[in-house]
Amino acid sequence: MSDEVRLEAQEYIQKGRMLLAADKPEEARKALEQALEKDPMYADAYAAMGTWYMEQEQFKKAREQFKKALLLDKTQGRVYFDLGNAHLMLNEMQECLDCYNRALSAGYDHAEMQFFMALAYEYMENDEMALRHLTRAILKDPAVPEYKVKKLEVLARMGRMDEAMEMADDLIASAPELFEGYHAKTQLLQQRGELEQAARFAEEAFGKFPEDVGLLLDYAKASALAGGIDKAFGLLERAEQMPSFEAEHQNISLLRAQLYAEKSDFPQAISAARACVDMEEGVPFNQARQLLMNLLMATEDYPGLYEAACAQVALEAGDDYYRAALYYQALALARMGRKDEAREAYRQAIRIYRNETLQKPNQLDAYLYRAMALRDIGELDSALEMLDFISNLNDKIAEPYTIRAEIYRQQGKEAQARAELERACQLKPELKQLYGAE
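Now predict its structure.
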């Protein structure tokens, strides 16, 4: 291929990229196709076409274009990175990491690269490796706030709260004009149980960004957790008057439902939770759906609970909300007296929980729901065995102790039940309100 033809192909690629950046996707595609017609052996043309497909969220087609580019030129680290991103979007995690490592071997060791490796490891629930690559991303480009936000999220999830707080303070110091650091610090203070300090800090943060409805929402949440429920209601009314209200409309409605629930005004809480679900526009609002199920359970509205649980299960998301809904579905049937259907629903849920833990052994909530289902169908010894396994994996979780206490009570072992509840309340002091002085 002559140099002139290669130059013409390069020009078409440049035009395609400029048109894509100008939000002219069809014109961009035509320019890139012309580049391929001019020079069908030009790796950059296939890579550019792969980028076009990525922008259109056609990830399988993007993957094939990047592979074609690499068949022609295996030295392009950037293309390995792009191919890894296509695999990432297709949930092909091992292929994704293989491509990222090939990109590194080809000399493409950018901060963005390290960040995406962290995202892949996070998806695979490997927080140690995610943290390692986030640290590298920050070292390579400390000016990107997104890297620090993700690192403090991972640190908090790992229970390394002091390090997470240091990262939040660093984020505020390095990017004081961004709300993310203030939002993260408010949440961290709440997780550490410093509720009054969290409320004061949230108020201070909102004072710096008085037009930010998200920070006002943080302030309302923090006030409620610190005991100021009426104040929180007032802040929500204020939020509804702000120009940017629509951006947080669902979250504001969710918090209102939670506040009503805290005041034991269950009819208002259920109405607000249903309103949240009704606001969905294609994307399920899982937090609102979960709250609605919890409220229906608390008010013993088992037909309503069954309907809500079935709607969640039908999404087949395979996430925490799906696992909870599977259990609620069976429980609602049992409470409505539909015993045969309930037993089959429990058995189906147990099978699904088992399959999930075989694929993801660290999925503790699946083990927990499985233990609860076993308890409900009377297989108490199997339930206790499952609970012991959970506690051996992580003895800082309160729920296995409360469930174990319920089983011991069914077995007439009051002393053991009290000991289990005492341990649960040590781990989660707010349970004392639920179980009284036990």
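The CA atoms of residues 72 and 199 lie 58 Å apart.
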